[in-house]
Amino acid sequence: MSTAHPRPFYYLENFQTALAWLQQRYEDLLNDEERRFMRAFANLPRPSSALLVRMIMRKGGLFRTSKLDYEEIGCPRAAATPLVELGWLDDQPLLGVAEIFSLLRKAEVASAFRLGARARAVPKAELMATLAATFVERRTFEAWCPAAVEVAYRVRVLDLCERLRLMFLAISTRRGRSSCLPISASSTTRKCTCRLRRARSSGASTSTTSMRSIAAASGSVAKSRARKSWPRCRGPSRTTRGSSRVGRGWYFTSGSDTRRTAISMQR
Fold this sequence. Notes:
With about 270 residues, the protein is mostly helical. The protein has a domain at about 160-260. The chain is about 50% helix and about 10% strand. The strands form 4 sheets. Strands 1-3-2 form a 3-stranded antiparallel beta sheet, with helices on both faces. Strand 4 and strand 5 (about 175-180) form a beta hairpin. The chain starts with 9 loop residues before the first helix and ends in a 6-residue tail after the last strand.
């Protein structure tokens, strides 16, 4: 029997802690877009901010409402409304065949495209390639699936959140460890912040690719880790010492202490 998490919004609290860490220590490295995002995020209703964090922690940027069923958030449509108004979610995204295939199960694909029994037996990947050559126009989820009673959302702030993640990772990491303590005395940190400031002044680091390069070059972030969507770490209080269960998220360690306080967002 599953038990309720003692902090159902732990992933949101962790995300807010990471943003506050950047804002308090390195506010001068943020651009106007990132500052606006942080201010608006702080003013969101809790279900809306929690839904956004859930979405940016998951693979891809397209989601059906039926796949956004979280007990602590409640109705995903209601939670998504402020995000749509801010332009952070698109509730009428134009989808190609590959994207609609990523959202639908094979039986739903067969129904949406009115496939016969013979076509239904074709593997999904082959079916997608065949239909992509025929259906070249992009349509809304509702147009692809008129019988559907749900909505599809596209997250429009993935690049911005990825830049913040990489900035956090590049600055806070030192020799393979992350610290929630001020580490301005670290030569690695000084070099990284100087690199970020130079890039910001030239406008280069507005690119996620540029920020990823800076994170990878910080001397303590492996390039393979920088390419991942989120670093892997232990989950919060739900896990125990030695547990193999991991989550994905921003995390800290407490200085030289080997115990990790995870800023982790598990699905």
